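Need tokens for this chain, all 472 residues.
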Amino acid sequence: MNALPPRPRSHVVILGGGFTGAALAWQLARQPARPSITVVEPRPFLGGGLAYSSEEPSHRVNVPAARMNLAPDEPEHFSRWLAASGEIERDPDAVWRNGDIFPRRRVFGRYVAEQLRPHLESGAIRHIRGQAHEVRRNGDGWIVATSGQPIAADAVVLAMTHPSPDVPSALTPIAEAHGFVADVCAADALGPIAPEASVLIVGSGLTSADTVAELDRRGHRGRILAVSRHGLRSRGHPEVRGAPFGDFVSMPAATALRLLERVRSTLAAADAEGVNWQSVFDQLRLQGAVLWSALSHNERTRLVRRLRVFWDVHRFRIAPQVEAVLDRRRAEGTFDNIAASLVDSRRAGNRLAVRLRRRGRKQIETLHFDTVINTTGPAHGKALRTNPALRSLADAGLIRIDAHGLGIATGLDSRAVGPDGGPVPGLFVAGPLARGTFGELMGLPEVARHAQAVTSEIESQLGAQPAVVVAR
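Here are the structure tokens for all 472 residues:
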């Protein structure tokens, strides 16, 4: 009997090769009936992305290594690699006094890249180093246009990085001025800052804390002021980690207010039992998808507008090495963070003048700085305008911003929601861009689990099959 021609594999193109795209490619490549996989990513290696390709020594993962994994079902996956890599010997400061390990971010990026290397060498995963500038329908499939040859795909996954931060309107008068840093993630953004320069950091989250740590590592000793509307600083980790505490899903709260009340009562119960607050928020994170799905559209909007800032500073904690820098600088009198709103700004000779109103006060005060640094976080709402591939899909009416402005409107099967409200065949959204539907999708463990879920959806909807040959 003559051999039948091999059944062609489905082709999946992943746009974005940071952790989200890398995790998805890795999961797909390990499936028995894997499709052909192409990842379009401009960086030289997969898995680093914006977060884990940083070469700055003070930038550390903000979760203990034991809780970071590419493989959700293998909790010791990264820890085993880390122990064998020699990185701890080269960086003894990574080990905190309680035994938790917080390696440099680039180390985690290297770990992810090494897991993908065998699949790249075998050809199971192809890395096209570039950026997609258009995605369009092609019959039942897709065409992805890059700077090279167009790529035909049966399915496309949107797994892009976060867009760069917007410059607050109050700072636009100094946006082009010497001494203004619009995006701290730009190459050597902090290099030109003099050791004695007075610095204003706009924002007080993780990026703000990392900025203080990097300035300190570079020898900066001038005054640093961080300002945000609420003045809340990212919290740290407990000395002793406990198990997640509380139950928020047996009877999920139907309103944001009821959820807040439940959190407060659970925190009180934890305190009475000698359990730290971090354990309560760990449980909230684990049960976040159920909590989010139990809320109506209006209640989700209320939660985002009213409570997101409080959630962020408790959920996204800073590494203890970074927290120690902030505490030391505060004790020395060279760092402070305040709650205030920006009014406007201007150039004042060789310095930058910023007018602000502190929370609870009526008067406006003018402060002068040598440097102003913007760390307001990714501008999720502009992703569809600034990324050319996303813009092409939006212009065609195939994707839109979700109702909460957190990312792309996505169905429960992780497919993009089309103009008719139904799923777009073969167009998937992975990672943080899908959090408007799934809730907690910013933390690495959640992103890894979502990559696993998207892999299952791709397999079931494309029906990827290995080549079939009938023997004689």
